[in-house]
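In response to reviewer comment 3 from the previous cycle, which asked for concrete evidence that the modeling workflow produces usable outputs, we include below a single protein chain processed end to end. The sequence was submitted unchanged, and the resulting structure tokens are shown without manual editing.
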Amino acid sequence: MMTDVDEATRTDWVQSVLFDRGYLSRIRGEAIKVYLVVIEAVGGEPDRSVTISLNQLTARTRLSTPTVIDSLVQLEKLGLVVSTTGPRGKVKTYYVADPPALEAD
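The workflow returned the following structure tokens.
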């Protein structure tokens, strides 16, 4: 059973990552949709893993397969998600990191 405190903590973490730590301005194009789907899949909590297929990501985001793949690459470069399985197969496990604040350019 989820409490209001649990929900507030999750919302605060997502807000912190995207706004306070400056990642929203670094996420380009459709990658924000992919990131939000992955966050939802881990229950909105950092430092968790989720196994999700490319088909699930394309269905949830309504994006093309190449766009989802490009978005995942971008999110990995930013350190927001980490692929924890090899490239074989259609299902990958992604670890949702709790990234540090970005330094100003």
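The chain has a mean pLDDT of 84. We consider this sufficient to address the reviewer's concern, and the full set will be provided in the supplementary archive.
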